[in-house]
Amino acid sequence: MIHPLIECIETREEHAHRHYGCFRIGPLLPGQGITLGNGLRRTLLSDLPGIAITKAQMEGVLHEFCTLEGVRESVLEILLNLRGIVLAPTSPWVGPATAYLDVRGPAQIHAGDLQLPPSSQVVDPSQYIATLMEGGHLEIKLTIDQGRGRRSPQTPVPQSSLSELTPSLDSLGIESVFMPVTQVNYKVETQGAHENAVELIMMEVWTNGSMGPRQAIHEGAVRMIELLEPFREPSYLSPLSNPILETTQEPQGIQGGEEVEKQGDGQVDVPKVAIESLQLPPRPFNCLKRAQIYTIADLLQYSREDLLKIKNFGNKSANEVVEALETRFHLSLPGQSSNQARRL
C-alpha cells in the first residue's frame, strides 16, 4: 500500500497579503492524482473559514451613495476599501465582534488606525481607507464575523420618520470575502511506467496572509478527512425516514425494506411523509398546499369527493393524486380500493 507524503518545496511572502507556497504530494496510484488534487483545490478555495468586515455603521448615512463633509472618498469608496482589509483571528473565534474607527482630519486613514477586538488583527496595517480634509471627521462602527467563501451585503432599510428628518445610525452591508486562500494551481506528473507508474501532485497555493500556505494545506486536508470519515462505516437511512430523499426517492411501497403494515383496526399506519414525495404536477400540489394538506397522513383524511371540493382541484388532479398514492405507497383514499384506483 502506498502512503503519500506532503513535501513543501518553497514558501515566500510576495506581499503582506499575498503568501505563496509550492507543495509536492505523492506518490499516488494512477488515477488518484486528479481525484485528490481537484478535491483539495476546491476545499482550499471554498471550505476554509476566515474573518472579515461584514457591516459598517456611520452617523448620518442613509445609503452607500452618500458623501461625507470633509472626506475625499464617497461612502461607496470607503466601503470598498473596508472590504479589501484582510483580518486574521488571534484566538478561536466565538462570534461577531465590533471594531471602531474614529479619526479627525487632516489625516490619511489606513487599516492600522482601526480599533480591533483582541480576537483579531490586521494583516497589512498600510491598507488605505480614506483621506480627511481639515475639519473632516470619520467615525465608523464595524462588525467583524467569521464565514466561508463570499457573503452578499445585507443592508436593512433605514428607519426614518416623516416628522423627524435627521437620519439615525444606519448599518450598511459589505460584500465580505472570507476566503483565506485566493488561488490554487495544480498539475499531476507521472513517474515510472506500466505497473511501476506512480503519480505526483505539484500544487501551488496563494493566501491573503491571514494564514500561511502550510497551514492552509493542513486545514484543507483535515476538512477533507472529516468530510469522508462518516463513510468509513456508513449507516443507511430508509428512503421514507430521510428528509433529504423525500423529493427524490424511487417509486416504492416499502419502509425500511418492509411493506407498510396495517393496524388492527384496519387503518394504515402511515409515517408523516411530506406530500412532496408524491412528485405531483404543480397544479394538484399547489391546491393541496393551499388546503393545508402537508403530509400523506393529512391526505388520507380526504376522500376523492372531498378533494374535488377544493378550489381548482378537478378530476384530472384527483386521478393524479390517486395514481401517485397507489404507485409509490400502495395506498388509496378513504372509501376507494386499490382496484378502483387502477381503473381510474
UniProtKB/TrEMBL annotation:
Region (Alpha N-terminal domain (alpha-NTD)): 1-232
Assembly, per entry: In plastids the minimal PEP RNA polymerase catalytic core is composed of four subunits: alpha, beta, beta', and beta''. When a (nuclear-encoded) sigma factor is associated with the core the holoenzyme is formed, which can initiate transcription.
Key words of the record: Chloroplast, DNA-directed RNA polymerase, Nucleotidyltransferase, Plastid, Transcription, Transferase
Gene that encodes the chain: rpoA
Pfam family name, one: RNA_pol_A_bac
Keyword Chloroplast part of the UniProt annotation: yes
Top-level EC class as recorded in UniProt: transferase
Name the record gives this protein: DNA-directed RNA polymerase subunit alpha
Region annotation Alpha C-terminal domain (alpha-CTD): where it falls in the sequence: 267-344
Superkingdom of the organism of origin: Eukaryota
Recorded catalytic activity of this chain's protein: RNA(n) + a ribonucleoside 5'-triphosphate = RNA(n+1) + diphosphate
UniProt-listed Enzyme Commission number(s): 2.7.7.6
Gene3D superfamilies, per database record: 5' to 3' exonuclease, C-terminal subdomain, DNA-directed RNA polymerase, insert domain, RNA polymerase, RBP11-like subunit
Residues making up the signal peptide according to the UniProt record: none
SMART domains, per the entry: RPOLD (SM00662)
One GO cellular component term: DNA-directed RNA polymerase complex
GO BP term, pick one: DNA-templated transcription
Family: Belongs to the RNA polymerase alpha chain family.
Subcellular location, record wording: Plastid, Chloroplast
Function text: DNA-dependent RNA polymerase catalyzes the transcription of DNA into RNA using the four ribonucleoside triphosphates as substrates.
DNA-directed RNA polymerase RpoA/D/Rpb3-type domain segment(s): 20-234
InterPro entries given in the database record: DNA-dir_RNA_pol_insert, DNA-dir_RNA_pol_RpoA/D/Rpb3, DNA-dir_RpoA, RBP11-like, RNAP_asu_C, RNApol_insert_sf
Organism of derivation: Nephroselmis pyriformis
